[in-house]
């Protein structure tokens, strides 16, 4: 006799009007619905105005030129001749293009670090070359000196209608404090340059200077001052600078804060601390539309990022903090916002050597953040795998061109850090992202971030042709 199990749950459910439908039917209906929704999302993503932005088919003719990427034919140079004795002593390892990039005596060094003869000189480059950016070339200020604003960021000052570019002033000798320590330049200070057109930059001097004598001071030349960023506080009417402060061995891992009444300084240095009690290395600050500003920093030995709001005066963090991109080992954060969504470009952690950039997106700046993949387009594979041999530092929105930005990066020269170059490239947000995200079950929730490689380019709407 068959026993009836009174605890066995029935797999049939009652549907409407007393008809019966089984659980598998319901599950399959749900799966079908989700698939249809997914298809619909994909189709609607592809029918927005910026449609095939990856393939250079923007609706805006002024932007189209920027999305037509250029290819680079970069070949490994032939192996150098070595004497049989040298070859026997130390067999030569196969080198990569990154090794070539890092090798001061590489035969193809001029490709990564073009000579001063190729410098961009806005005071002389008139006519055909006017307003063109040449990523990787030396860029001269209005006095004819190479711009010193590494690891920098830009503040648009609404009161004066002027852009201010702040960055590490590294015009000193590069050396190693210890045999195995990273290449370094003594702290000189934070350089500031002003511009109305984002191409011609006037040197406004060192707005926060190093401390020469007092060895216990955070800004003593033997320490580290990196990635300074400045924002304006509408409540206090002060310009507030945040920066990474460290000791020679990067064990202090702190932030530093300075303020000024004027964008051109001088800035008064206030203090350093470990934000929220955590180690903090590469960092940036971001001022949101509602005036709330945030600090974003690499922490837990660079294994994750932290994000938290600043107080009303922007002089301190608040107790609120979130861990994001946990275990992803990212640094060099550059944050921006488009259409209510937050985006961020980060790099991997390989010292001064270049590596692959990743784009991330979030609905709330406090997270969760999702990783969308490599935003670099064009050049060639190694260009894309190395962020065009550079590292993110800042993203500047282009006023008048919604969804368009300037991606600012540093091409570090660890052999001579003062000769590090700037890689500025056009960047857009639009089109479907090319890989599913962690928490979206394959639904492309956000648009793709694309950074387009160009040997030479200029801002949309500039110039005649
Ligand atoms: C990578 C960071 O992004 C830079 O700002 C600098 O700290 C170097 N590491 C030092 O090796």
From TrEMBL:
The keyword Signal is assigned to this record: no
Superkingdom per UniProt: Eukaryota
Protein family according to the UniProt entry: Belongs to the glycosyl hydrolase 43 family.
SUPFAM superfamilies, alphabetized: Arabinanase/levansucrase/invertase
Keyword set includes Transmembrane: yes
Entries under Pfam families matching the protein: Glyco_hydro_43
InterPro entries, per database record: Glyco_hydro_43 (IPR006710), Glyco_hydro_beta-prop_sf (IPR023296)
Organism taxonomic ancestry: Eukaryota, Viridiplantae, Streptophyta, Embryophyta, Tracheophyta
Any one Gene Ontology BP term: carbohydrate metabolic process
Key words of the record: Glycosidase, Hydrolase, Membrane, Transmembrane, Transmembrane helix
Protein name, entry field: Uncharacterized protein
Biased composition (Basic residues): 79-92
Sequence intervals crossing the membrane: 21-43
GO molecular function: hydrolase activity, hydrolyzing O-glycosyl compounds
Chain intervals for the UniProt region annotation (Disordered): 69-92
Organism of origin: Buddleja alternifolia
